Amino acid sequence: MADYYTQFSFMTPAHTPEEKAFLLNWDKCPPEADDDEWYEEHYGVEAKDDGDDGIWVSPDDHGSVDNAVQMVADWQTKFGKDDFVEFEWSDACSKPRLDAFGGSGVLIHKGKAHWAPKAHTWCAEKKKELQGTLEDSGE
């Protein structure tokens, strides 16, 4: 059996105590929430205070890129932040498998995510483009 992993690591430039508390507690389930529903929207993100530099975000084991993006977007929206936060992630597998490796990146600004194409999507698109070029040239 193979294990699949998504990994990322990035800094969020939160400097005030209120901003840091928001990010550090984003993945803590409030008592009034439905644990299962809440978990689905917040798992795979761990935030740690890195002193003056802000909050370091990474997963312990398997991360959720979507939830990490949502955490940053929530922080930017709540505090009216204009900072650019960007990160890349890798998708990996504990055993060799076809289509089990890849990754991409995202830039979050003013609560909106701007996604780069995933590696396998880019490869497929580039292949089509090159095949079209070869057909047009008669090769």
Question: In short, what is this structure?
Answer:
Helix content is 37%, strand content 27%. It is α+β, with helices and mostly antiparallel strands.
Helix share, percent:
25-40%
Radius of gyration using CA atoms only: 19 Å
Largest beta-sheet details: 4 strands, antiparallel
Average pLDDT confidence is 87
Strand adjacency order, main sheet: 1-5-6-7
The helix/strand series, from N terminus to C terminus, equals EEHHEEHEEEH
Strand content: 25-35%
Structural class: alpha+beta
Features:
3-stranded antiparallel sheet; 4-stranded antiparallel sheet; 4 helices; 139 residues; single chain; alpha+beta
Q: What does this 3D model show about the protein?
A:
The termini are far apart. The chain has 139 residues and is an alpha+beta fold. The protein contains 4 helices and 7 strands; from the N terminus they run ββααββαβββα. The strands form 2 sheets. The protein has a 4-stranded antiparallel sheet, with helices on one face. The protein is globular and about 65 Å long. The longest helix has 19 residues. Helix content is 37%, strand content 27%. The protein has one domain.
Secondary structure topology:
Elements: E1 4-8, E2 10-12, H1 17-25, H2 35-42, E3 46-49, E4 55-58, H3 65-79, E5 84-93, E6 102-109, E7 112-115, H4 119-137
Antiparallel strand pairs: 1-5, 2-4, 3-4, 5-6, 6-7
